[in-house]
């Protein structure tokens, strides 16, 4: 029992130490390694907190020198680098497997002293037998794959040029992008997503029989009830390639339409042969598709690429596509990046979703290495991994990066790779939810975090309109890290102090916001707004305890809904005020604060207590103040607390209907007609609000000048207005009068 | 039947029950040939509008009571429709420029020019000029006020302005100097009692003096509120005797509940609860300043003497910020957190020097 207790306490201590970060960052220099691949063939596990490197830095260091880093120790782990307060489970694993452990210093020493394979004369010396064999095997595989590619290119050349390949080959090679040149030619060559590709192929294979059974038999993967599939996934992972290769493998002629084709409703309806009546006409009309060199079979397959790009010009395209899918007699493969997009809603019920994932580095690595080998580039494995990671597994981008690099260099070091990946970093827009959980989460402001103020402000700019609202909505939901080592009342007081600081910073941000979005439009204040509204509040209250779901789940800002509700009720209130104006002297605010509570017992209460008997009195009272039935609804809606609009539920349904019927039956005085009902032509306002600057008042002469010119320019337009006005008013007046009579 | 407050509203300057000096002065002004631009200011429920209407009647006779409402529509450059209600008689016109939002300058200029460019049609009218009453003048934007000052001089022959505002602090100095300032102070308790007795006499019943005193004290100088409460009480207990329970308006009780919440517990969860209540009040058109004032006054009643000054200081601080800022809830919430923090620190006897 006591061991259990110590284990838990050491865990708590470890957590505290983790948040404390390295004691003296950067205090130990990294020794000059003998060879750049000195850690090749070794696999490391890091545990505990090192004193001079953050975890990320230590892992980078191991990778840089060719080492492999895994998260959990196993029998294959060569070394475990132990820091302070190592995890108990990892210590147990070390004991179990009898692993070698290193301290931080001896890890650095290892870097400084170990000689990698490139430093010795004999190839592979210094590595254990198994690893060497494995490496050799891998290298052989890479080389053979490269040879394969070479052979195929030569063959294609031969076919294309009828034997005379010697000269044309070279010129032809350089004309193609690497992404086309090294695109997978068979299903086997596709990196990652093997299962999904196989499913797609199977579905295509079963398609004719599914059609015969009228899509009633689900089949092995339960996909055969669908006439179409929707492949979704991030760019550059081979969605289009897989679709084409599967179609080819199953003997279909793929017809591709992508964002460069217009795909409006009309074109989708007319351009596609939905009923598949005449296949010949279809192929003959689309000469271009034959140019791909695909053998024309009697089976076609439609590939709709980038369906989430069907927008603006392609009005109604998705709807038409959906209609097409419902009755198609050829398989349709749709491809999109974002499967959850609103636009693709109609497709969810008609298509089978086939999500493609980003392949991990190991799935892409060997193919990249083969290509590098064939292009005679010397890029070590760890650099390739770096590139793949940097491009977020976008194979197309890795290839593009490599081909660009090839123009100037044929080797690449770890640092160069890192820089290149950084340079080509994709700018992904985070959702406000992600930004908020990152901002208020426990890591961004912890002591080990390497993010600069700039990086933190950058998060605000992912969505500068929403992020502040999200922060304001959610900043009270964390367990601030600043109160972690306290307990009891000091903790509570500290928590309140942090909340206070955050709240006052948010209050500051609103003042800045007025400068930005107010009449002055000082957009250059945005960085200041970023700090006041987002970074500074988060820096006080960051901490754990906020995720999706749970008691403190992150929520969408209420401000938006509440604000529009306020505007709506405000508008209705000014309507009431305008009507009551003939009787009442108060302004809008006074109406709400004094008259609405005062009228409540006369207009609403009697209906609750006396039922239908009170209806006549209520209507009389309403007429007295020129209130309509809509205004009555507004008065009910405006109540708070005990007058809240759920009093409506207390009014019996019979009373309500009696009230409505009686009101509609009678005649009521009307304070005024809405200008719109009278058909008045709205007058255009020329100048908008001008900047609200103090200096503007010091110039005495200017307003007058502006006045005069205003008058001159306005006159002709006013004349026109009046002309138009007269005509329209006289017409519509008759119309409204007629209507009024009809009613009576 | 309309409410008493509207039914027994005085129609002429002679009928007014208090501020008799002011009434005589207004009468003299109306009789003289050079009637000036005027600015009526004072707290709500003091009788500004009533006095303006009485003055107009004094100027033009009973014709000013024949009111009609006319709605004008403007289209802003961003294609938004602005509906402006004009309350008018043949002699005067009443506008509320705050309905036009940020386009108030253009709308006010346009309307004033239109009115000023036409002569008085009625030959039998007592005066050659027409009167434009501008409601909520303290809500006019700065550039609208700047635009007004020239107009006030230029069209003086055809036009007089009567501005009506709660306070002069938001009006620019040039406007103030062009007007005759008329302060309509809140009535005293005695004056309010007189009015209530007058109403009671008209309704043919007697009001016990202690009842009228209690109502007047509760209303704190707001005549409208006093009369509305008076009528509500009369409905509840027809003889108005015994201890009176003055029902607070819905929003006020709600604000007091919020104050209770703040004093009872100080925690993030409670702040969020309070935030929800604030949203409820704001969305139901209770002005943020009123919310802050009501809640702060209630909180102050419940806390220790030593905290009162601080709480009010911060209320004033955030009230100013609310006026400057756009998202009122941020400042309301910042104040609540501040109060909770102060309160908690005080109960634990903590040093609070860092909050100054």
UniProtKB/TrEMBL annotation, chain A:
Keywords: ATP-binding, Coiled coil, DNA replication, DNA-binding, Nucleotide-binding, Nucleus, Phosphoprotein. It is found in: Nucleus. GO terms for biological process: DNA repair; DNA strand elongation involved in DNA replication. Residues 692-710 have a biased composition (Acidic residues). Residues 731-744 have a biased composition (Basic residues). It comes from the Eukaryota. One of its GO terms (cellular component) is nucleus. Residues 34-111 form the BRCT domain. The keyword DNA-binding applies. Residues 7-29 have a biased composition (Low complexity). Residues 1-33, 687-744 are annotated as: Disordered. Residues 128-155 form a coiled coil. GO terms for molecular function: ATP binding; ATP hydrolysis activity; DNA binding; DNA clamp loader activity. PANTHER family: CHROMOSOME TRANSMISSION FIDELITY FACTOR 18, REPLICATION FACTOR C SUBUNIT 1. Belongs to the activator 1 large subunit family. This is Replication factor C subunit 1. It comes from Pisolithus microcarpus 441.
TrEMBL record, chain B:
It comes from Pisolithus microcarpus 441. GO terms for biological process: DNA repair; DNA strand elongation involved in DNA replication. Keywords: DNA replication, Nucleus. GO terms for molecular function: DNA binding; DNA clamp loader activity. One of its GO terms (cellular component) is DNA replication factor C complex. Residues 34-187 form the AAA+ ATPase domain. It is found in: Nucleus. Gene3D superfamilies: 1.10.8.60, 1.20.272.10, P-loop containing nucleotide triphosphate hydrolases. It comes from the Eukaryota. It holds the Pfam family RFC_C. This is Replication factor C subunit 5. Belongs to the activator 1 small subunits family. The keyword Oxidoreductase does not apply.
């Amino acid at each position: 029992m006591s061991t259990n207790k110590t284990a838990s306490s050491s865990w708590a201590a470890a957590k505290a130490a983790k948040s404390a970060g390295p004691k003296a960052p950067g205090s130990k220099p990294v020794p000059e390694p003998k060879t750049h691949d000195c850690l090749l063939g070794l696999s490391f596990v890091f545990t505990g907190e090192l004193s001079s490197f953050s975890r990320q830095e230590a892992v980078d260091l191991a990778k840089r020198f060719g080492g492999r880093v895994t998260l959990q120790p196993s029998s294959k782990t060569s070394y475990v680098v132990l820091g302070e307060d190592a995890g108990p489970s990892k210590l147990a694993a070390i004991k179990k497997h009898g692993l070698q452990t290193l301290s931080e210093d001896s890890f650095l020493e290892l870097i400084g002293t170990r000689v990698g394979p490139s430093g010795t004369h004999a190839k592979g010396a210094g590595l254990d037998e198994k690893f060497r064999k494995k490496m050799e095997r891998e290298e052989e595989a890479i080389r053979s794959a490269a040879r394969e590619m070479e052979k195929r290119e030569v063959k294609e050349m031969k076919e294309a040029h009828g034997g005379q390949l010697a000269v044309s080959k070279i010129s032809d090679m350089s004309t193609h992008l690497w992404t086309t040149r090294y695109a997978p030619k068979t299903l086997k060559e596709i990196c990652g997503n093997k299962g999904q590709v196989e499913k797609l192929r199977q579905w295509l294979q079963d398609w004719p029989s599914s059609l015969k059974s009228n899509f009633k038999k689900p089949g092995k993967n339960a996909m055969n009830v669908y006439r179409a599939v929707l492949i979704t996934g991030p760019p550059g992972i081979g969605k289009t390639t897989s679709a084409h290769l599967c179609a080819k493998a199953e003997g279909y002629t793929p017809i591709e339409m992508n964002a460069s084709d217009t795909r409006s409703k009309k074109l989708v309806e007319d351009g596609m042969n939905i009923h598949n009546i005449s296949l010949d006409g279809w192929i003959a009309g689309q000469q271009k598709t034959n140019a791909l060199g695909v053998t024309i079979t009697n089976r076609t397959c439609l590939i709709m690429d980038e369906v989430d790009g069907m927008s603006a010009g392609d009005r109604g395209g998705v709807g038409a596509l959906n209609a097409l899918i419902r009755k198609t007699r050829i398989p349709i493969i749709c491809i999109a990046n974002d499967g959850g997009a609103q636009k693709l809603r109609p497709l969810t019920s008609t298509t089978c979703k086939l999500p493609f994932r980003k392949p991990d580095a190991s799935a892409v690595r060997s193919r990249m290495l083969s290509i590098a080998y064939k292009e005679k580039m010397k890029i070590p494995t760890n650099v390739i991994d770096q590139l793949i990671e940097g491009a977020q597994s976008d194979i197309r981008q890795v290839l593009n990066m490599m081909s660009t690099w090839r123009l100037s260099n044929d080797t690449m070091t770890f640092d160069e790779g890192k820089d290149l990946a950084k340079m080509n970093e994709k700018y992904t827009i985070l959702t406000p939810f992600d930004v908020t959980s990152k901002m208020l989460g426990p890591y961004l402001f912890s002591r080990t975090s390497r993010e600069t103020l700039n990086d933190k402000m950058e998060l605000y700019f992912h969505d500068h309109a929403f992020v502040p609202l999200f922060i304001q909505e959610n900043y009270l939901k964390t367990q601030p890290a600043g109160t972690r080592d306290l307990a009891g009342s000091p903790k509570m007081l500290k928590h309140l102090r942090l909340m206070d600081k955050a709240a006052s910073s948010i209050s500051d941000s609103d003042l800045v916001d007025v400068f930005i979005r107010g009449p002055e439009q000082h957009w250059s204040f945005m960085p200041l707004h970023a700090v006041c509204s987002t970074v500074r509040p988060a820096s006080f209250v960051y901490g754990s305890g906020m995720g999706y779901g749970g008691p403190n789940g992150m929520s969408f800002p209420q401000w938006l809904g509440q604000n529009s509700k306020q505007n709506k009720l405000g508008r209705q209130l000014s309507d009431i005020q305008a009507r009551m104006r003939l009787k009442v002297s108060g302004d809008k605010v006074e109406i709400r604060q004094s008259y609405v509570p005062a009228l409540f017992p006369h207009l609403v209460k009697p209906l609750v207590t006396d039922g239908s008997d009170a209806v006549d009195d209520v209507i009389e009272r309403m007429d007295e103040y020129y209130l309509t039935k809509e205004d009555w609804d507004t008065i009910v809606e405006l109540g708070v607390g005990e007058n809240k609009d759920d009093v409506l539920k207390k009014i019996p349904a019979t009373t309500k209907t009696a009230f409505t019927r009686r009101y509609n039956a009678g005649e009521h005085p009307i304070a005024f007609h809405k200008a719109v009902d009278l058909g008045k032509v709205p007058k255009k306002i020329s100048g908008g609000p001008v900047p609200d600057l103090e200096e503007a008042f010091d110039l005495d002469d200017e307003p007058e000048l502006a006045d005069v010119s205003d008058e001159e320019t306005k006159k002709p337009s006013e004349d026109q207005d009046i002309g138009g006005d007269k005509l329209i008013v006289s017409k519509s007046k008759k119309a409204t009068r007629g209507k009024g009579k009809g009613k009576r | 039947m309309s409410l008493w407050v509207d039914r027994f509203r005085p129609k002429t300057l002679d009928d007014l029950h208090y501020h008799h000096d002011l009434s005589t002065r207004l009468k003299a002004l109306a009789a003289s040939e050079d009637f000036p631009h005027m600015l009526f200011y004072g707290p709500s429920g003091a009788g500004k509008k009533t006095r303006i209407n009485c003055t107009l009647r004094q100027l033009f006779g009973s014709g000013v009571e024949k009111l009609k409402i006319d709605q004008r529509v403007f289209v802003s450059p961003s294609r938004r429709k602005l509906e402006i209600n004009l309350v008018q008689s043949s002699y005067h016109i009443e506008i509320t420029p705050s309905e036009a939002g940020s386009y108030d300058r253009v709308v006010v200029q346009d309307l004033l020019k239109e009115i000023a460019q036409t002569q008085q049609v009625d030959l039998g009218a007592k005066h050659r000029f027409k009167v434009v009453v501008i409601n909520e003048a303290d809500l006019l934007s700065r550039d609208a006020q700047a635009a007004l000052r020239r107009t006030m001089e230029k069209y003086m022959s055809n036009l007089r302005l009567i501005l009506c505002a709660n306070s002069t602090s938001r009006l620019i100095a040039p406007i103030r100097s062009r007007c005759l300032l008329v302060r309509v102070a809140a009535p005293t308790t005695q004056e309010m009692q007189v009015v209530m007795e007058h109403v009671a006499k008209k309704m043919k019943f007697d009001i016990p003096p202690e009842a009228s005193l209690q109502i007047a004290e509760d209303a704190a100088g707001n005549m409208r509120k006093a009369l509305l409460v008076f009528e509500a009480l009369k409905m509840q207990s027809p003889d108005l005797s015994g201890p009176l329970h003055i029902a607070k308006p819905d929003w006020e009780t709600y604000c007091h509940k919020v104050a209770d919440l703040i004093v009872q517990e100080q925690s993030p969860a409670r702040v969020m609860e309070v935030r929800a209540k604030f949203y409820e009040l704001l969305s139901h058109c209770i002005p943020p300043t009123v919310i802050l004032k009501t809640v702060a006054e209630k909180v102050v009643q419940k806390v220790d003497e030593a905290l009162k000054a601080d709480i009010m200081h911060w209320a004033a601080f955030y009230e100013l910020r609310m006026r400057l800022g756009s998202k009122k809830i941020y400042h309301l919430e910042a104040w609540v957190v501040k109060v909770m923090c102060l309160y908690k620190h005080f109960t634990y006897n903590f040093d609070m020097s860092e909050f100054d």
